[in-house]
Automatic annotation (TrEMBL):
This is NAD(P)-binding protein. InterPro entries: NAD(P)-bd_dom_sf, Sc_DH/Rdtase_CS, SDR_fam. It comes from Eremomyces bilateralis CBS 781.70. Gene3D superfamilies: NAD(P)-binding Rossmann-like Domain. It holds the Pfam family adh_short_C2.
Amino acid sequence: MSTTNEYAPFNLTKSIRQSPPLDFSIPYSESWLSGKHILITGGASGFGEGFARRWAAAGASIVVGDINEKLGTSTVASIRLETKNENVWFVKCDVCDWDAQVQMFKEAVRLSPHKGIDVVVANAGIAGTDPMQMPVVRNGEVQKPNLKILEVDLIGVMYTSHLAFHYLPNNPGSLDCSVNANPENASFKRDRLLLLTGSVASLGPIANQPQYGTAKHGVLGLFRCLRGSSFVQGVRVNLLCPYFIETPIVPAEARLLMAGAAYGKVEDVVEAATRLTADSRILGRSVVIGPKVRVKQEDSGDWKFVGFGPGEGGEEKAIWEAYAEDWEDSEVFTRRMVVLLNIVQKARGWLGALSDIVKVFAGR
């Protein structure tokens, strides 16, 4: 029996245009990527290379941004040869350098078949020995620490995201994101997506890697904030949180500590990213990608590990949704802010749309 004092949650998922929880049994087609123009930072190796290779094969045009010119050039040449897709380019970029990122975005627009960017993947990241807990003292003075990991993995992502919120809404011919999009309809293929690469370190502590953990927590915070307001610009924001995956970013000491443990696979990260990118119905969702295991779901909703091999029964999974319930309840500030954002979006109406069109043709 309910009472007048019974608490009722303030669910804002519809107000922020968030799509329903992910159902990985629903099929999607990577052909939905065809015709999209995609900018990927950190695209010369690892996840970024995997994204570029698969998406180019599906008919997307790709700009690979990376600081490693030699590797980036050879990666693009390899992708072109393998996929027979000539619309794949390399642009050298240090993501910590604001001016370099500005030039990368401008070049991505210049190279675009339709002179706009449909998808921005903020993927560049590094790891390594972290000096945070190892202060260096010279002549009695503590020296300034090297915060390069934090700068690349968080500040670089913030720069990329900031630029994305200029270029995505000003993308000619693209549509506002919508949970009612039909990606099989050609007119819905070109929407606007910012895809962030976080980590399992976004979700919990990572020993002896405070910069990396801080940065990836920051990327998660960025995602959780942006997905509550990005609908105003018609941009959908999704997040990848890979577990330890065998890529160049995993340093030797981490591989030693992980000896005997199960790694995730690059192909599973690429599969998750492809679904989040190709399916324009997915708005404001994050996934964790880990080792492929077999599990059974209990009546409580919890998943029970049953083994690795097909003979163990259960369901094989490597991709899981995280932070699915953020907006199913909200406190008063957020609730009132979302209401205000919806009023702003409605007030812009045709005037706002015309203003955006004028900016595009004015080159702003």
